[in-house]
Write a structure and sequence with these properties.
The chain is of the alpha+beta class. The protein folds into two domains: 202 residues, Distorted Sandwich (Adenovirus Type 2 Hexon, domain 4); 164 residues, Jelly Rolls (Sandwich), CATH 2.60.120. It is built from ten helices and 22 strands. The strands form five sheets. Strands 13, 15, 18, 19, 21 and 22 form a six-stranded antiparallel sheet that branches. The longest helix has 13 residues.
């Protein structure tokens, strides 16, 4: 009898069983890995490009973008912090499928930080993110390092399933393109200082938290990916821009999606958009416009709200429900009633059919378009206003071993 069989028989006769202990975690190793941009330095108007090399599952909540910034003069960062230097973001998979695209990212970020990010968390990141209206940043050789959490950078890093990791094949070989804003919109001149005329970005780096899974977990995920594809659900944002000084505005948002979840319109003075002395992305002070409005969003034959709103108090309250602060989460954001009146004004409505189901929403297409019907009830001189309208909708990425598909 062979030695191995003899030992097995002896163990069996004595009622002994030895088994390998089961792993206590699905993850063997987790560590931050750096993804470097194609170049080491960029200037305003350039496009930063990352080609990602991913081998593990990415934790979006623990990942971030970091870079250094310098300018030829002292400058200030307000409203959206250092995110103001980013105009557009595009993310595509290795097989060319567009996973996310945010136009006027800096305008959207200001709205997002005010209405959806907990104030304590924003204060925690304030210095690293540059979100301090009173701080002047030095120029010249004094480079300043900033950090943007990836969950503030793109909806791809905010999955509907909390704590879900991004499948390795979704980001492996993906390309991230970040278009830098011009200096007049990105920066604000420091107090009593010469306005800056340029800025440069050095060593942009995406630092992604990667999880290396144990063999059993990786086997199950690989089989599912090969047979059916792994599903990854997240939010995307479509931006529509209109500029007018009319006291009546009717605008259509030309985008077809299967599940629209909310819609938001923000107000900005057109003259401030490229003025280096002004905070370009700050909203209007209601006192500078005709301060009584009447508005509704129309989706096909349905209206949101059902009856037109004709006062700012209700507009603020309905907008609050669109961001779910009154319904589900207890976070306190920076856009309270006084902030709303003096720079955080927005018109927002929820389109979700069920707050308990994160992926619920309404279809938008050629026969059911979304339109904003807005009227100022007071006549008089009306400043030129830029209206940014952000349509938030659900995207579904299906991840296979060698390709990615996306549905919106």
């Amino acid at each position: 009898m062979e030695k191995g069989n003899a030992n097995a028989s002896l163990l069996h006769l004595n009622g002994l069983r030895y088994q390998m202990p089961k792993p206590l975690s699905t993850t063997l190793v987790r560590t931050h890995k750096k993804q470097y941009s194609q170049r080491q330095s960029y200037t305003h108007g350039d496009t930063i490009v990352f080609d990602l090399n991913i081998s593990g599952q990415v934790d979006p909540e623990m990942s971030y973008l970091t870079f250094e910034v310098s300018s030829d003069q002292n400058y200030k960062l307000s409203c959206g912090g250092i995110g103001a230097i980013i105009r557009d973001i595009r993310i595509s998979s290795k097989n060319g499928v567009e996973l996310d695209r945010i136009q006027s990212y800096n305008a959207w970020l200001h709205m997002y930080l005010l209405n959806q990010v907990d104030q304590n968390r924003l204060n925690y990141w304030q210095r690293l993110f540059g979100h301090d209206d009173d701080e002047d940043f030095a120029h010249g050789n004094a480079k300043r390092r900033f950090i943007i959490p990836c969950c503030w950078l793109s909806g791809l890093f905010r999955p509907h399933v909390k704590s879900q990791k991004i499948p390795a094949h979704l980001l492996s070989g993906a390309r991230v393109e970040i278009v830098l804003e011009n200096v007049g919109r990105a920066f604000q001149a420091a107090t009593d200082a010469t306005p800056p005329t340029k800025f440069d970005v050095f060593n942009p780096t995406l630092v992604l938290m990667e999880h290396t899974l144990n063999d059993n977990t990786l086997k199950v995920l690989t089989e599912e990916s090969a047979n059916n594809g792994l599903e990854y659900v997240y939010d995307r944002v479509f931006t529509s821009i209109e500029t007018t000084s009319n006291i009546t505005m009717n605008t259509q948002i030309k985008k077809a999606v299967s599940q629209a979840t909310s819609i938001t319109t923000t107000f900005h003075l057109a003259n401030d958009q490229t003025d280096i002395t002004k905070a370009s992305f700050n909203g209007v002070d209601i006192g500078t416009i005709n301060d009584v409005i009447k508005y509704q969003y129309r989706l096909g034959s349905n209206y949101f709200p059902h009856q037109a709103v004709d006062n700012w108090e209700e507009a603020f309250t309905i907008g609050d429900t669109a961001f779910r602060r009154m319904n589900q989460d207890l976070s306190v954001t920076g856009n309270d009633w006084m902030e709303y009146l003096t720079g955080g004004v927005h018109l927002s409505v929820p389109l979700k059919t069920d707050h308990a189901i994160s992926s619920s929403g309404l279809a938008v297409n050629n026969s059911a378009t979304i339109a904003l019907e807005l009227t100022y009830d007071k006549a008089g001189d009306q400043p030129n206003i830029v209206y940014y309208t952000f349509l938030t909708y659900t995207a579904l990425a299906r991840v296979f071993l060698n390709q990615v598909s996306a549905k919106i």
